[in-house]
């Protein structure tokens, strides 16, 4: 499902576009489950390249570094447009 990722600090602008890949709260990322309030999102386009990702990983801290990767993102910061 296509989606837009909303910034984590202010919560008012889109930092990336992608696709929801996993909606399983037990899915583990770097040793910890993503949790009930999260999706795993495949980042397809970055808009605010320097925006920090929600749960930094060993090789990723910004949304630009997450381009083409699956990352966890809180559901309240995911906008799913009507298609």
Automatic annotation (TrEMBL):
Name the source's superkingdom: Eukaryota
Q: Which InterPro entries match?
A: DUF8039
Which ranges carry the DUF8039 domain?
A: 2-80
**Any Pfam family:** DUF8039
| Protein's name in the database | DUF8039 domain-containing protein
């Amino acid at each position: 499902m296509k989606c837009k990722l909303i910034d984590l600090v202010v919560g008012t602008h889109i930092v990336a576009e992608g696709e929801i890949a996993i909606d399983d709260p037990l899915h583990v990322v770097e040793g910890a489950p993503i949790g009930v309030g999260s999706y795993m999102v495949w980042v397809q386009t970055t808009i605010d390249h320097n925006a920090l990702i929600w749960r930094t990983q060993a090789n990723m801290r910004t949304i630009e570094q997450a381009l083409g990767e699956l990352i966890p993102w809180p559901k309240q910061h995911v906008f799913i447009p009507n298609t």
